[in-house]
Specification:
Helix 1 packs across helix 2. The chain is of the alpha/beta class. The protein is 46% helix and 11% strand. 16% of the residues are buried. Strands 4-3-5-6 form a four-stranded parallel beta sheet. The protein has two domains: 48 residues, Helicase, Ruva Protein, domain 3; 95 residues, Dna Topoisomerase Vi A Subunit, Chain: A, domain 2 (3-Layer(aba) Sandwich).
């Protein structure tokens, strides 16, 4: 006999950050709630891949050919922030600080996992930089081995095009204690210091 609750729990645990306990709680919440909510949730998930696509220009998620950021005339069209994934773009957008446009790589260099430069489609990024006369490419990849390798590779490929390639600063989080910071983060915070 099939167990639809166990099946839903198993599917929910495949989502990032959802363990068995959270998945069980979510499944029971959906089951105890209004059946119309469960139907709407199921429809939204089922239609996600047909209603959402990659923006043709930047790779962000969009419901049309271009995302809302690429279509926003108030954005600086000559400054591009290069990110690894769409959630990184969303995090930067949430800060409200960056007013340029984006380019999403949808991955990072990871030679040990067989992910090389061809997987990132850097040629498309280079062509975009030339076609749109981009003045600065801000590389906002994670501060990990893969993120650093990707940043160095991008700088090597993009600088010959005459574009300024910069890297996001790294350092201590707001409210962080120095004694708990790792050596690399603390070193970068000191290297990236600025005058007050």
């Amino acid at each position: 006999m099939e167990d639809p609750i166990a099946e839903l729990v198993q599917l929910l645990t495949r989502l990032p950050g959802i363990g068995e306990r959270s998945a069980t709680r979510l499944a029971h919440h959906v089951l105890a709630g209004d059946p119309r909510y469960a139907l709407a949730l199921g429809d939204a998930v089922a239609q996600l891949h047909t209603r959402v696509q990659r923006c043709e220009r930047c790779g962000n998620w969009a419901t049309d050919s271009f995302c809302r950021i690429c279509l926003d005339p108030r954005r600086d069209p000559f400054v591009l922030c290069v990110v690894a994934r769409v959630p990184d773009l969303a995090a930067i957008e949430k800060s409200g600080i960056f007013r340029g446009r984006y380019h999403v790589l949808h991955g990072l260099l990871a030679p040990l996992d067989g992910v090389g430069p061809e997987a990132l489609d850097v040629g498309r990024l280079s062509a975009r930089i030339r076609a749109e006369a981009i003045r600065e490419a801000v590389v906002a990849t994670p501060l990990s081995v893969e993120g650093e390798a990707t940043a160095l590779y991008l700088a090597q490929v993009l600088k010959p095009a005459g574009v300024k390639v910069s890297r996001i600063a790294s350092g201590l989080p707001h409210g962080g204690e120095l004694e708990f910071a790792d050596q690399i983060t603390l070193g970068r915070a000191l290297d990236g210091r600025r005058e007050l």
